[in-house]
């Protein structure tokens, strides 16, 4: 915060408190020349105004609020750049990565500054650590049948995964559905945990420079034919079959994909970026780059164990 805004905020804040005090003193002063308890000669609808002081309980409460406001500003941040004598702050500010967050936590501890958020996180970790440890001792398959464990896993999923895969884990364009049994890298408990721990980086190269526009159209037609798509130009399908040899290294000679590379099966009706001719043409022309972030440092292995159990349960009928 610049010096100007620090001074501006301080003046406005202290001025407001001073203004409240002066307003109270003004209301307590008898400036009418009328004795306390006498008629003010104001009447409305049969109600006569009497010159009475403010109630003492109300006046004392007002004074207490003013004093409390001053004490708060001394103890906690609130006056511009002044941090307060308690060295307290609500959370680490301007954090852009997990590494910066960890560094900020350590820096605050070194400087004796108390971060409310860090303190609450530490308390929560201490309180719930035994619960996560108990679940971690059980297998993913076992937890997938435990309703209470699944509730915890579902909450963790909602907080960390639903932004991409949806609250129902049904996925969206570019983000796979987790409720079917179609897996790019494998749907076993170990593979799901591996994906969550280390993340995934998928890359489909652009083929327009290799195949040309006509060649792309031909491979698109053949690719769509693998999933029994009707009404295709058979001449394009035939020509595309020969050019599909460029794709077999990842998708296999039969187009059924390869989980070792994360190459999808092209023979089913499940499409990550859309099943239309336009979408498939776009994929071949420009390529695709997909990233699944690693959650090892964010959640830790024990929480990931629960998330993996929940995700695994979604595809088990």
Short structural description:
This protein has 317 residues and is mainly alpha-helical. It contains 14 helices and six strands. It is elongated.
Beta-strand percentage range: 5-15%
Structural domain count: 3
* CATH class (first level) name of the largest domain: Mainly Alpha
Biggest pleated sheet: 2 strands, antiparallel
Instruction: Give the radius of gyration.
Output: 33 Å
What is the name of the CATH architecture of the largest domain?
A: Orthogonal Bundle
Main sheet strand line-up: 1-2
> What is the 3D form?
elongated
Count of discrete alpha- or pi-helical segments spanning 4 or more residues: 14
CATH names the topology of the largest domain as Cytochrome Bc1 Complex, Chain D, domain 2
CATH homologous superfamily grouping of the largest domain: Cytochrome c-like domain
Assembly state (oligomeric): single chain
Low-confidence stretches: none
Percent helix, as a range, is 40-55%
Number of strands: 6
Spell the H/E element sequence.
Answer: HEEHEHEHHHHHEHHHHEHH
Query: What is the typical, i.e. mean, pLDDT?
Result: 90
Taking the alpha carbons of the first and last residues, their distance comes to: 56 Å
Q: Class by helix and strand content?
A: mainly alpha
Main location: membrane
Function: C-type cytochrome. Part of the cbb3-type cytochrome c oxidase complex.
Subcellular location: Cell inner membrane
Cofactor: heme c
């Amino acid at each position: 915060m610049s010096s100007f805004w620090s001074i501006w905020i301080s003046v406005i804040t202290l001025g407001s408190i001073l203004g409240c005090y002066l307003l109270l003193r003004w209301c307590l002063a008898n400036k009418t020349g009328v004795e306390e308890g006498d008629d003010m000669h104001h009447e409305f609808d049969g109600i006569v105004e009497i010159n009475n002081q403010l109630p003492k309980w109300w006046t004392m409460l007002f004074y207490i609020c003013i004093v409390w406001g001053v004490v708060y500003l001394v103890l906690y941040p609130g006056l511009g750049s002044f941090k307060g004598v308690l060295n307290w702050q609500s959370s680490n500010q301007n954090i852009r990565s997990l590494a910066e967050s960890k560094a900020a936590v350590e820096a605050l501890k070194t400087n004796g500054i108390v971060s409310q958020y860090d303190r609450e996180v530490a308390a929560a970790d201490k309180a719930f650590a035994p619960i996560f440890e108990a679940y971690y001792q059980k297998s993913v398959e076992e937890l997938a049948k435990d309703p209470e464990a699944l509730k915890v896993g579902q909450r963790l999923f909602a907080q960390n995964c639903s932004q991409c895969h949806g609250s129902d884990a049904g996925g969206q364009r570019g983000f796979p559905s987790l409720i079917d049994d179609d897996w790019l890298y494998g749907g076993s408990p170990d593979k799901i945990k591996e994906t969550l721990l280390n993340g995934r980086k998928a890359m489909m190269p652009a083929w327009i420079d290799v195949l040309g526009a006509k060649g792309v159209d031909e491979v698109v037609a053949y690719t769509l034919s693998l999933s029994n798509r009707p009404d295709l130009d058979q001449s394009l399908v035939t020509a595309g079959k020969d050019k599909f040899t460029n794709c077999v290294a990842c998708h296999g000679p039969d187009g059924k994909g390869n989980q070792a590379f994360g190459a999808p099966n092209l023979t089913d009706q499940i499409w990550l970026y859309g099943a239309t001719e336009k979408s498939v043409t776009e994929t071949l022309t420009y390529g695709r780059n997909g990233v699944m972030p690693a959650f090892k440092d964010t959640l830790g292995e024990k929480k990931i164990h629960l998330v993996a159990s929940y995700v695994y349960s979604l595809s088990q009928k």
